[in-house]
Amino acid sequence: MATVDEHMADSAGIELRRPIRKEILDLFWEVAEHQDKRRLDAVKRLIGELKKTQDEYNASGENVPPYSPEIGYALNRLVHGLASSRKVARQGFSTALCELLHEVPAIPVEDVLQLIKKELQVAREERGAMFGELFGYLAVVQSGRLTDSPSETVVSVFKSLHGLRKHKPYLQHIGAQAIAQMFQQLSEETFTQHLYPHIREELQNGWSTCAPETLFLLLKVQQNFPGVVDKTFLKKHWGHKEIFRKENLESLGQVIMASATAHPNTHAVCVLILTRICKDKVHFPVFWDKIVDKTLCSASHERKLLAFKFLEHALPLLDAEHISQAMSPSLLKMLINNLVYPNSFHSAAAKQLCQYLARFVKSCSEADRQLAVLMALLHKPSTIHFDSVTKTQTVASIVGGLNAEAVLRYTAWLKKVFLTGTDSDEEVKEGSIESHRRWASNQLVHVVKNPSLTRTEQWLLDTTKFLFLHAFFKIKKPIAGDVVCDRSPAFELSQESSKLAAQHFNSVLSTLGTMPSFKQDGPKHALPGTRSNGDFWVYSLVQFADSLLNDTDHFEPLVQFPEEMMESWNVMLRNVEAMRKKTAKGCNVSESFQLLTLNLGIQMFTDADQVEEVLEEIQTCYEKATEKRRKSLKKGEEDEPHWVEVVVEILLSLLSRPSHLLRTVVDNVFRAVCPQLTRKGLQLILDVLGPKTEGDEEGHVMVEDLLTDEEEDGEDAEENEEDEEKIKLKPNGDLGSEDESDSDDDEEEEVQDVDEEFKAKIKEALGKAAAPHDDNDDNDDLSSTASGESDLSDSAMMKLDESLSKIFRTQRKSTKATKKEAKKLMTDFKQRVTDLLDIFLRKQPSNPLVLELVEPLLRIVQDSLRKSEEHGLAEKVAGLYRNKLCKIKDYPVLGESDSEELHAVLSNIVQVAYMAPSVYLVSLVSAGCMFLLRVLRGKTSLAEPSPVKTRSKRKKEKQAEDKSTGPEDPALKTGHIDVQKVVELYKSALENFMTRRDSHIHAVLFEDLVQHFPVLGWQLAEQLTAYITTGVQIYRRTQACHLLLRLMNTHQKPPDSQQWAAFVSGLSEKVGEVLHGVSQGVTEAKPKFLQEVLRTLQALIKAVEGDCKMLNDQLVDAVQHFSQQEVATRSSVITGLCKNCLKLMGHSTNLPTGKKGKKRKVSSDRQAPEDQSEETPSKKTKNSKQTSPDEVNLSITVNNNGHEASDAMKQEKHKMKQNKSDKRNKIALENVKSSNVGQVLENKAAKKKQKFTKVRNKPQSVSQN
């Protein structure tokens, strides 16, 4: 926001008697905002504030001037801002001025006019000033204040506007509009006496010198003052009593062409002409044909744009008949050309017009007008493939805006196109029939699937019946009066059209199967896809199919139904009726079997042989599922599979088929039967997803069929020609020798077919060199002899080799492509099967079987990550595993007998982490472990809130609990968890992580345990403490500190006080050992590791809650001596942590401040002093120079507990370092002297040495003191 001084600077030196409130001043900046909404909101708030000041001013009793000082300031600033060149500032200020004049009648219009002349007429020739003056007068006119103003004021405004529009051509249009708006506020007498004399001459010139602004003013005068411009006036000066006559069309066209100067806007006169001409049904067709089609559509680019604008303005004013005329062939051709070519001049305007057509259709309530726009785009000179040709969604958007009546009529037209093979009454072209039928069928599907349309139940059913009829039946004789069967195709449907109709029927039926129920009252079905009467959509279609099968006089099925097949159909219908009766009694299982049976019944028209057997199995399963419980099983029934296992096998076989309809049915049925799912049934699903082993059952034929090509390894790209000649391709993609044979007769036939084709190619390549073939063995010798005796030249042999090589390469490529496609099909099938597990987890989260999924899903992810083609499957299964399975809140309640099995699963999945290729898989292992531990612990009072959001709350609850009841019994926190087993499991993993450099385990496995189960985490504390110094790498030791830090941040201490005391003592001792080793140069000093050590120490000191006696006695000295080391002083983070630790332990923190500013990479990667090379003395000197004597002169308070020996050792070590440093400096100086740098550099080196010696001697004097 601007300051008051800035506002005053913008006010052009206006003197005010009192300061303006900053709230008002800030609004002037918002009035010039680019966004329309914010700008208009600022104008509204500004006017409200100014009205308040006016009310206060009126209440004060002052009346000179008649408005408040704030309004006076606003008037000056608004008028002055009209000349601003800032974007949209002029619009915002003119709007504010107009609203202010309208809302505050106390403002004299004369004062505003004087301000306009004073501020804006000074620089009359400036473009901004002229626009500002014009906008100022326009604001006065639009405020409506001229109605009550004296005639002198009205005349002054009119003259000013008239003079401006005559002064510059670019002011003509807006000036004429402002004058036309004045006419609405004046009486005819005022206009005739004061304004008309100034424009009489312009209006009387007629067509000879008519400009667009002249015709616009004439029409406005005629509209507002009909007594002035009457028929006599028009007859005398314009040739006819009416402007809009056939004789004047040419003149109107010239005016419209001249109005293109307002490009890209539409001139106001064009809108007036369209408004008048669209109401004239007689002259509109002639006007549109002559002016738009023949003039604008063939003119310049600016005038072609007018044709698009004319259509936009005309559509809301036209009826259906004239809309068809307005969307003329010339206009549509121009529209399509600009859409097809994106770089065309009017491409953007054409897209804008298409968007407007969709908005117009959606806002229109008349079906005739909606269909007129749609049909214009689908008929010649356009095309039914408008969207695909123009690469837009224009037709689809328009169809989405149709009302219910228009949808019914459009659907009827699509059916007509499908039956006739054409979209018009012209002669049908043979090549276009299939194209039209394909498009019409596809459009019917889109209409049914479009959720934005108002879909009625009967319309959906009729459309689906239409597709089913022409997909599977042939009409012998139409049935009059039937909506679906009243007309037969004009040309017999081809096999391709029937197949396409079948595909579209399945797609529509799949959509209906997932559609919410139309039933409004009463109990609804548990499954979707039902009508208002409670029946399934597929049941109505099965009834329709049965009526077609029984009406042999009118219909003939494309697939013949023999007596056996017809009997199976009738049995299916009887079974469905029995299921419907049980469903009516409330049997949900019966409902799912009914849905499955009906959909399989429909599939009899496409695959009857396989469906019949499956229907029998379903009926058997249904009988077992609905029979009453028996006391004992008959002999032999114990070995029979459970009915739900058979259903699962059936669902898996259906899922393997490439049909979206069947997938929808499978999902719906599985939702209903998953409560009865058994362990074996679940294992059937997992067997599909899991890696194939030799022990797989023979019954899983549909899985093995898909895996046939996947099991075989690809052949090498380069092989010897001798091997190639021995290879023969089997139908399943295997490569074998000619001597191999198969016991299956069918496979032998297929192999023989492929071999014959392969032999034919080889024989063709050999040409005359090919030996004659005969089955007799005796002839083989003759053939070989003949072949051997044939003489071929070297060039012929080379060509022959090339031909044979090409054939074998093509054969190998075909084999690889087949295998690749088989792998892709298998992966897609597995992903569909994964959806069943998703349904099971969502519907049955508390089912104990969900625990059976933990290890298998993890193994599936592990196996899929190894195969590049299954990475998508791995991602999907991992998402299901992590986000659904491991985050179940209503998990199953575990009994004591099941805990052993769950512990075994826990151990198995932890073993996966030992060979995990990345941290991603280890994180999945950790998520599964946390889920299993939650299940083992049970649903106790110990919740699992977010450690960040409720940390303070848990701390308060813990403190209150400690005061009242003491520590909680650990058994309540562990439930059925075998603490010893789990701890040993994690200890083994931790040992592997900390002691093996090639370990695949990552720290996330232990972080989650520490965070979510601190009771178990404390069992690892002793090991973690030891690994601070014994870890195999500095990274592992850093992770040990990090895990201990997270463990202490849980604010839960171990229940045993002795264990806590031992932990505090051991950890403080380890920290002291690390810090002392760094001080002595023994321990590797990585800044990140030291930071974690100090953070762990800080958390430990806080955890003991002031009882520092529990800490190691040497800890304070270790921290103090460490803080003096270079590795500590050069890092502000380490220095701060040292201060905090000493402060928490109650000791002085007068330590040197670490280096601030930009972090240097060398600080984290610096070698230990003993590892540094002696060839870098200058670098050492530079670092030493940065430490001032004042920083080294420390005041340290230490406990004099007999550390003289330690001080002596430090002094001795310091002397050794000093001697080593002097030696380095000496070498460096010798190198400098030997170079040609000169005496100046030598002197600088000597000074650096002096400062370096002074700095390094200072700590020794401090320690001696």
UniProtKB/TrEMBL annotation:
Checking SUPFAM superfamilies in the record gives: ARM repeat
List, alphabetically, the GO terms of the cellular component aspect: nucleolus
Question: What is the name of this protein?
Answer: Myb-binding protein 1A-like protein
Per the record, the similarity remark reads: Belongs to the MYBBP1A family.
User: What are the record keywords, sorted?
Assistant: Nucleus
Q: Where in the cell does this protein reside? A: Nucleus
UniProt GO molecular function: sequence-specific DNA binding; transcription corepressor activity
List all Basic residues biased stretches: 1246-1257
**Region entry Disordered: which residue ranges?**
709-754, 767-796, 944-973, 1148-1265
Q: Where is the composition biased (Acidic residues)?
A: 709-724, 736-754
Biased composition of type Polar residues is found at 1184-1203
